[in-house]
Specification:
Blueprint: H1 5-17, H2 19-26, E1 29-32, H3 33-37, H4 42-45, H5 56-61, E2 64-69, E3 72-76, E4 81-83, E5 91-93, H6 111-121, H7 123-128, E6 134-142, E7 145-151, E8 157-163, E9 166-174, E10 178-185, E11 191-193, H8 195-205, E12 211-220, E13 223-231, E14 240-249, H9 257-266, H10 283-295, E15 298-299, H11 300-306, H12 311-323, E16 327-332, E17 335-340, H13 342-347, H14 352-364, H15 367-379, H16 385-393, H17 403-422
Parallel strand pairs: 5-14, 10-12
Antiparallel strand pairs: 1-3, 2-3, 4-11, 6-9, 7-8, 9-10, 12-13, 13-14, 15-17, 16-17
Pfam families: DUF6996, DUF6997, DUF7226
Domain DUF6996: 7-75
InterPro entries: DUF6996, DUF6997, DUF7226, WH-like_DNA-bd_sf
C-alpha cells in the first residue's frame, strides 16, 4: 500500500522523539502542536475520525491520539473508537415544510445543511422526543477541565486529564428536559472516534442540570441515520451504549421491482472498460464517495486521510466508480486527483428515485452483472459464487487472471445485485 503524507511525517516524528521507546516505558507520550508542526501541519496530522485514518505506525502499534489541551496531545494504546451498530431499520418518511424556500432538501452538500434540513422538517423533533426543542449552541469552544478513564489494548484503564482542549459541536438542541449534542457526518463509515461525542458531553454534562444526549448522525444518498448514545459512567470514555437508532428520508424512496425490471429491459450492454474490474462490496460507499466528489475534487491522499478508507480501499472504490463512468482520474505532478465525470455530475442532479434507477442502469449495462441479475429473477435467489465465476469467465473482463481474483470479484458482483434488489424494500 502507498504511504500517505501523514504516514511519512509520523514515522519521522516517532524516530526523532523516540516515541515507541517512551510509550513502552511510561504508557503514553505527550506531544505538542509545535513539535508536530516541524514536520507537517498539526491540524492535518491529528484528525483521525476513523480507525482506518490512523497512520501506519499508529495502526501497527494499536496507538491512538487524543487532545488534552489547546496545543498538546497524548499518544497511547487507547481504545478510542466505537464501531457503528448495523441494524435493519425501516426508513421513516417525513414531509418537508412547503413554506421553506431557503433550503434545497434535494441538494444537501454539507453537514450543516443536513442538520438544518433535519431540524426544519421535524426529523430531529421526532428522534429526540422533547417538546419545544430549539438550536442553541454550535461551533468551536473550550472543553474546560475534566478527567476520564479510557480502556487500553493491554487490558488496563488509563487516566487522562483534559484542560481547555478545543472541541467542536455541529449542533446543540435544547428542549424542556434534554440537551442533545449532535456530531454530523456526510460520509459513511464503519466507526467513529468516541472523543467527538464524549468531550462535548463532558463539557455540558458538568454545566447544566438537564439530561445530555450524545447523538451521532450520518447523511448520505437522501437518508438521515441517527444513533443516540448514553455514557453509563460519565467518567468512563468507553461506557457508551446505544439507546436507539432510526433512519429518515424526506424524498420519495419507494421503488418497486417493476421499476427495476423496466430499467433492465431497456438497458443495452456496453463494452467492458479498460479499468480494473470492481472489488468494492459496499455500493452505498461508492455512492457516498461520488457525493463527496460532487462537492469538490479530491486527491488520493485526501480520500484516504479524511474518510473511512485505507489506501487499498481508496484504490478499489475509486476504480469501481471509474468502472461505472462516474469518476475521472488524472495526475498532476505526483498527485493523483479524482473528480466526477459529466455523467456523474448529471446523475447527482437527479432526485432520489431516478438517481437510484440510474445507478441500476449503469450496473446492468455490464454483461456479467446483467446475467447474474437474470439468474436471480429466474431462480428467485442469488446464484452461488461458482455460478457467478462461470459467467465472469466468458464476459471479457479486464485483467482478471488468477482464480483467487475471480472469486474476490464475484463477491462484488453479488453485493451490487443484492443492493439493487434491496432498493425495493426501502
Amino acid at each position: 500500500m502507498s504511504e500517505t503524507k501523514n504516514d511519512i511525517a509520523w514515522e519521522r516524528i516517532f524516530k526523532k522523539y523516540r516515541i515507541l521507546e517512551k510509550i513502552k516505558k511510561n504508557g503514553a507520550f505527550e506531544i505538542t502542536s509545535g513539535q508536530i508542526n516541524e514536520f507537517r501541519e498539526a491540524r492535518l496530522m491529528t484528525k483521525f475520525d476513523h480507525r482506518k485514518n490512523l497512520p501506519k505506525i499508529f495502526e501497527e502499534n494499536n496507538f491512538s491520539i487524543l487532545p488534552i489541551t489547546r496545543g498538546s496531545y497524548l499518544i497511547a494504546q487507547f481504545k478510542a473508537y466505537h464501531r457503528l451498530e448495523e441494524k435493519e431499520t425501516e426508513i421513516i418518511k417525513i414531509p418537508f415544510p412547503t413554506y421553506i424556500e431557503s433550503i434545497d432538501y434535494e441538494n444537501i452538500t454539507s453537514e450543516a445543511a443536513a442538520l438544518n434540513c433535519a431540524y426544519v422538517s421535524g426529523i430531529l423533533a421526532d428522534f429526540i422526543e422533547d417538546e419545544e426543542m430549539v438550536p442553541t449552541v454550535t461551533g468551536r469552544m473550550s472543553s474546560d477541565a475534566f478527567c476520564f478513564y479510557i480502556n487500553t489494548y493491554s487490558g488496563s484503564k488509563f487516566k487522562v486529564n483534559v484542560t481547555n482542549a478545543q472541541i467542536e459541536i455541529d449542533g446543540g438542541y435544547e428542549g424542556l428536559g434534554t440537551f442533545s449534542l449532535i456530531e454530523a457526518k456526510n460520509s459513511l463509515s464503519d466507526d467513529f472516534i468516541i472523543r467527538q461525542i464524549y468531550y462535548p458531553y463532558r463539557l455540558w454534562h458538568d454545566k447544566i442540570n438537564k439530561k445530555v444526549k450524545p447523538i451521532f448522525m450520518t447523511y448520505s444518498n437522501g437518508i438521515f441515520t441517527f444513533y443516540e448514545y448514553e455514557f453509563q459512567d460519565p467518567e468512563d470514555y468507553n461506557s457508551l451504549t446505544l439507546v436507539k437508532q432510526k433512519k429518515y428520508s424526506i424524498e420519495e424512496t419507494e421503488i418497486g421491482l417493476d421499476d427495476i425490471i423496466e430499467i433492465y429491459k431497456r438497458t443495452k450492454i456496453i463494452n467492458e472498460p479498460e479499468v480494473p474490474f470492481p472489488q468494492a462490496d459496499s455500493f452505498e460507499r461508492i455512492i457516498n464517495l461520488c457525493e463527496l466528489l460532487n462537492e469538490s475534487e479530491l486527491t488520493r491522499d485526501e480520500i484516504t486521510t479524511n474518510y473511512d478508507f485505507d489506501s487499498r480501499q481508496t484504490n478499489y472504490y475509486t476504480d469501481a466508480a471509474r468502472y461505472l463512468g462516474l469518476v475521472h482520474k488524472r495526475k498532476e505532478g505526483r498527485e493523483v486527483i479524482f473528480s466526477l465525470t459529466e455523467e456523474g455530475e448529471k446523475l447527482f442532479k437527479l432526485k432520489y428515485k431516478p438517481r437510484q434507477l440510474k445507478f441500476v442502469e449503469l450496473i446492468l449495462s455490464h454483461k456479467v452483472f446483467r446475467e447474474v441479475f437474470e439468474l436471480c429473477l429466474k431462480n428467485g435467489k442469488m446464484p452461488d459464487k461458482h455460478e457467478v465465476v462461470k459467467i465472469m469467465r466468458y464476459s471479457n473482463l479486464y485483467k482478471i487472471e488468477s482464480e483467487k481474483t475471480f472469486y474476490r470479484r464475484a463477491q462484488t458482483i453479488m453485493s451490487w445485485i443484492k443492493w439493487i434488489l434491496e432498493l425495493t424494500r426501502l
